[in-house]
């Protein structure tokens, strides 16, 4: 259990909220996002600060030569050639605005796939209880969550990204994608590794398990904005590039851990196949009569 300095047990507070909820929440999957305002009723300000800071992840810094190269674009008036004066679709934004994310990984072992890809980890989670037919037929296989950008290394999924055509970062769609869809998909990827965002704004969500069973979401305090006028090119775009570069380094750190991890336990029949981190909560759906 994750016990805070005040004596509060994190998992117990998550259980209390899960029992009170009438809608699906991340606490049902034992995922804690300390930036979620719902937790302000269950944890004190000091406790939330401790949850954020305990073994907190950090974004690697960009090397100085790349920093100098970015600064060479200061006062360049080229942004208008990239942003057309019309309402773009999600596909337009994915290719024209956030296309540089793909190029950032050109020299990396991490593979970037763009355009509504199904998460294999999410599919495995959803089909974890399937069994051979006995008195009941075998359950139909469920597909994984569709994501806009998928980051993979060999057979492992390392991360995901969602794109939207809305600039309102407080919209319901943004809350659903960054508050439910992305974290649940990330936990599926996280568990899979252990066993073996909207419009012109970008944020980074990092999932880890700093203590015991609960998974934590760490995110930037605000969305970074893609530049829409030449005057803000250097300020806004350089921050996004630094964020993408740092994220790439974090993923490469994970690939190194995967490559160097011992596989000796795979040859031991006595080793348990379960993980200390509980699986995702998958709500059941009932089909209504047409």
Concise account of the structure shown:
The protein is α+β, with helices and mostly antiparallel strands. It is built from 8 helices and 8 strands; from the N terminus they run αβααααβαββαββββα. The protein has a domain at 61-127 and 141-260.
> What is the number of strand segments?
8
Low-confidence stretches: none
Described by the principal axes of the CA atoms, the overall outline is globular
Count of DSSP-assigned helices: 8
Q: In this structure, how is the largest beta sheet organized? A: 3 strands, mixed
Spatial ordering of strands, largest sheet: 1-7-6
Global Rg: 21 Å
Class from secondary-structure proportions: alpha+beta
On the 0 to 100 scale, the average pLDDT is 78
Distance separating the two termini: 46 Å
Helices and strands, in order, run as HEHHHHEHEEHEEEEH
Helix content: 25-40%
Proportion of residues in extended strands: 5-15%
Please explain how this structure is put together.
This protein has 290 residues and is α+β, with helices and mostly antiparallel strands. The protein has 8 helices and 8 strands, in the order H-E-H-H-H-H-E-H-E-E-H-E-E-E-E-H. It has a 3-stranded mixed beta sheet with strand order 1-7-6. Helix 6 crosses helix 7. The mean pLDDT is 78.
